[in-house]
Here is the input.
Amino acid sequence: MSKNLVIVESPAKAKTIQKYLGKDFDVKSSFGHIRDLPKKGMGIDLATFSPDYEVSADKKKLVTELKAAVKKAEMVWLASDEDREGEAIAWHLADELKLKPENRKRIVFHEITKNAILKAIDNPRDIDQNLVNAQQARRLLDRIVGFEMSPVLWKKIKPGLSAGRVQSVAVRLIVEREKEIREFTPKASFKLDGIFLNNAEQEIAAKLKKDFDKEEDAEKFLEKARTTEFKVLNVETKPGTRTASAPFTTSTLQQEASSRLGYNVTNTMRLAQRLYEEGYITYMRTDSVNLSQEAIEGAKKQITSEYGAEYSSPRNYTTKSASAQEAHEAIRPTDFGVKSIGDAQLNRLYQLIYRRTLASQMANAKIEKTVIEIGNAGLNPHFEAQGEVIIFDGFLKAYGIVKTEDEDEENNEKLLPKVKVGEILTYKTITATEKFTRPSARYTEAGLVRKLEELGIGRPSTYAPTIQTIQNREYVDKREIEPQTREVVKISLAKDKIKKVVLDEKFGGDKNKFLPTDIGEVVNDFLTDNFKEILDYGFTARVEESFDEIANGDQKWKEMMTDFYSKFHPRIADVEENADRANGDRLLGVDPKTGKNVHARIGRFGAMIQIGETEDEEKPTFASLMTGQNIATITLEEALELFKLPFDLNEFEGQTVSVGVGRFGPYVKWGETYISIPKGEDPLSVDQKRAEEIIHEKKKADAPIATYKGEPVTKGTGRFGPFIKYKSIFVNVPKKYDFDNLSQSDINELIDAKLEKEANRYIQQWEKEKISIENGRWGPFVKFGKAMFKIPKKNDDTKYEGEELKDVSLDEVKKWITDQDPKAFAEKKKPAAKKATTKTAAAKKTTTVKKAVTKKPAAKK
Here is the structure.
């Protein structure tokens, strides 16, 4: 055994580092954090803010192995990542493995290269407790916010909801943007574009310098232009430059990978992690745009050899953000000699990083911008044509140009023909087009990251998990918004004739942008009404600044926690006691058939429409909203349409047919089979013929594609991807198989492997009791229904072996279950039978809209 034990975070990194350090070092991985706050319970003493860390169940075996390795080593090198999270991992390892200061060394490096590793070994330090405390403060504060705010949501809205310091602010941004879009009133104006010809019949595209608010004003201008002689009034040429952007930080990498490659934030960070661990790039979580002198020299050498000395312009960038963490480098290649790598997906991101870093060290692009003014002294305003020519491409040679989502689609930057002042031009066409102002765009992942960074909310390590969390919680999603249609007027002047047409224009459609869900809006409104301080953008940014101060040693973390909690907890108690329940209730109007009020609100299973009041003698009737509808915008007419569902059609092949909408969207029900109606299709439009077509499509899709041991095999696509089904067994089909053309041997191979896996899955099984002992990823466990339970140790404090578990009795297994869940086998009381509610009720003679109940406002501090 080596005298030196090195502990890193990931196995991929361990493998790379082992190669550089050789036989005198044994490199092992901690697989991230080895301990954390407990999953159940808060795990924090709120009197002293002392955390109760515990080794997670899946890490106990690993910790035992690391302890054994520590005993055999003379020196332990803690080599976790160079950030607060990495520092905390090193501290947890030192504490849990009982490492003495004289037998441990902390080393850090921002790239996994031989030089960087050996340099780190030569320059060890001790654990930086300030960085550890900053991470502890973040972890504890976020746990407290989540654990104290979430139960308030359960009580005031519905069970199962959660709140978080950063996630709730991210949701607020998306909700506020959506409300801004809904409240936006588009304003129309007429924009004029002209195409003019010079003597050489070359086209010059120009725009009028002024827009017209009224159609008649635009028409009057065109009438005047019809008889006007157009001239070149002025030609102005200006030299200009374009400067390369700084090298990537975590945030800018996420934004650019989204714009150029279409990668989401989580995917970008996953690929960047792999590139780092395999030694291709420097550390991928950084706020810094700084480059080391070694990197600047490496880039200069590569640029000079590949493009020429005139393209090289070495420079260093300074980080503008005052909150930038630790002295990291920007994200860059570790070796500029490596221009590409073998893995296609990794290579796309690597190329982006490589070219961005090279471009940052290259000369500015030189351009020549030309502006031509076209018009006549008797006709105002004038037209203007803009164009530019790249004189020297500079950094563009490596990086090119990409537009951001905020830039206008129209681009005036084009090559213009040579003209002289006073030269007469003729118009080919002049067109006045009605244009409507647009609201702010919905957030893409990149746009949301940019906004969070701009507000100082979160840090590089938090963006990806925050965005993933708000989607997992179903507070936001990326559902497609179908465009609407409106009429626009277009007036054209060509060949001395003015022609007016009315065209249809699509607007308001969106794809791959964040929208709040109904529950997301209700939760956000409740939190902003009752926890203004926590949801305040400035407060969230100030908390981040406090973490930075703790990391720098300028603030004590427990004092910061005490100050925060002294204000936070009383507010929790106040809201829990005094705030009204929230369900997003919106009164739409009155049902003309029954005279009852129609409400849109959140119910137990999500957004719904309710006809009637809960306190009425006759119970209300309910209908679920369809995909694309939400309680904030649905109209009374749209809501009443939902009560036409479900409806029955004629039988088909001896089985009943109906159309309805459920938790998973609209469906055709054929006998006991539910068949989803294709996305975007209105269920109310499904007639007998269409229903039978949908049933036929389902039958065709479910038809056997082969047999296995005389039994039919079918295939389909579910929420986890393509599968084949044999008896009651579902078998996932990996990408290496051609799903559309599965051969019999493919099917045999897939089912054989699945059956073998299933055979090895159960150690013992009691089907009637729904109890089993199964082999799991982390070892054997007990399963009862859908719940999983640990297998306790034997009386001699040793673990059960697989063979021993085959002989354990059912009674013994039941005891293991009740030791962990005393109520596991308690008889559940059957709920009282509910009276069926009908879809229609007798119409009342009077039609009254009940007055909204005046809500008691939450008490304020």
